[in-house]
């Protein structure tokens, strides 16, 4: 991995940590930072030590969105030529589960980054918002698509057009976060959650993530075919043999990830 300027990473007990690290700018996401986040996710995805990726922010907030200072003079041609959102597409290809631990401001591109995670644990002080409309633009890193697929058109359109701040309770009610925790317990609770997934057989975990994600884009029939193929594939794994043998022998399985 190249030297990281805007994030910090570490690995401990099967969890690959990514900390957004521009706390003075409320972790506003500049292009280099997004590139570092995606490259680190991809490196963790290939690292057999890592079972689960945990993404959070240093300092008060998760992220106040894309870096407006960097964007203020952008033009359509430069954005097309640099293909600046391609990094965001790569994030969606990460196979291991990504858990976001969010707090305080989760705005704009920060909200889009959160919605790119597979699970969100939110501190009770979290506020989600898409303020782009107030800047004369709109979400550009998946916000209109991901939020709509998660909560339906009615609320997505209302929230994106009003830039309303959505609190953690409402987020839980609409099902786009998994859990609300006290701010001081955010990391502890998220790590506990990450550990539960980290101890599952890794091949089954990635096939399940892939299959559930297909349900969002595929028809029921196509999704069922995809699920079935993944189910069959898992019978080629050692972990399937170990998991079922352990059940029959009435003992705990010892999964190796193979
Ligand atoms: N870009 C650049 N800098 C930002 C930033 C952003 N998105 N958000 C906050 N900052 C900077 C502020 O400029 C400030 O820097 P200085 O100390 O150098 O002045 C510092 O972070 C702290 O921010 P505030 O003093 O404003 O903190 P606050 O607590 O008073 O307000 C806030 C917090 C309500 C989140 C406010 O900072 C804010 O409204 N930020 C902008 C939010 C926003 O519009 N995000 C969407 C960006 S567009 C986008 O994300 C497009 C996309 O889809 C990819």
Automatic annotation (TrEMBL):
Keywords: Lyase
Pfam families on file: ECH_1
One function term, GO molecular function aspect: enoyl-CoA hydratase activity
GO term, biological process aspect, one: fatty acid beta-oxidation
Annotated TM spans: none
Origin: domain of life: Bacteria
Documented EC number(s): 4.2.1.17
Gene3D superfamilies according to UniProt: 2-enoyl-CoA Hydratase, Chain A, domain 1, Lyase 2-enoyl-coa Hydratase, Chain A, domain 2
Family: Belongs to the enoyl-CoA hydratase/isomerase family.
Name under which the protein is recorded: Enoyl-CoA hydratase
Species per Swiss-Prot/TrEMBL record: Peribacillus butanolivorans
């Amino acid at each position: 991995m190249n030297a990281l300027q805007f994030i910090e990473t570490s690995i401990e007990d099967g969890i690959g940590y990514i900390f957004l690290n521009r706390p003075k700018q409320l972790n506003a996401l500049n292009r280099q930072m997004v590139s570092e986040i995606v490259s680190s996710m991809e490196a963790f995805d290939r690292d057999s030590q890592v079972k689960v990726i945990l993404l959070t922010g240093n300092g008060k907030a998760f992220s106040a969105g894309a870096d407006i200072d960097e964007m203020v003079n952008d033009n359509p041609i430069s954005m097309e030529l640099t293909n600046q959102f391609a990094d965001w597409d790569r994030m969606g290809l990460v196979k291991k589960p990504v858990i976001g631990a969010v707090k305080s401001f989760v705005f704009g591109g920060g909200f889009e980054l959160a919605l790119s995670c597979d699970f969100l644990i939110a501190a009770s002080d979290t506020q989600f918002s898409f303020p782009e409309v107030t800047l004369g633009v709109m979400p550009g890193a998946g916000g209109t698509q991901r939020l709509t697929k998660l909560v339906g058109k009615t609320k997505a359109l209302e929230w994106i057009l009003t830039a309303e701040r959505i609190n953690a309770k409402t987020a839980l009610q609409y099902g786009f976060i998994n859990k609300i925790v006290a701010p001081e317990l955010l990391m502890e609770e998220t790590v506990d959650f990450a550990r539960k997934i980290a101890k599952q057989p890794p091949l089954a975990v990635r096939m399940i993530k892939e299959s559930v994600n297909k349900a969002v884009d595929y028809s029921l029939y196509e999704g069922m075919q995809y699920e079935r193929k993944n189910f069959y594939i898992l019978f080629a794994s050692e972990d399937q043999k170990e998991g079922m043998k352990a059940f029959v022998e009435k003992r705990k399985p010892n999964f190796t990830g193979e």
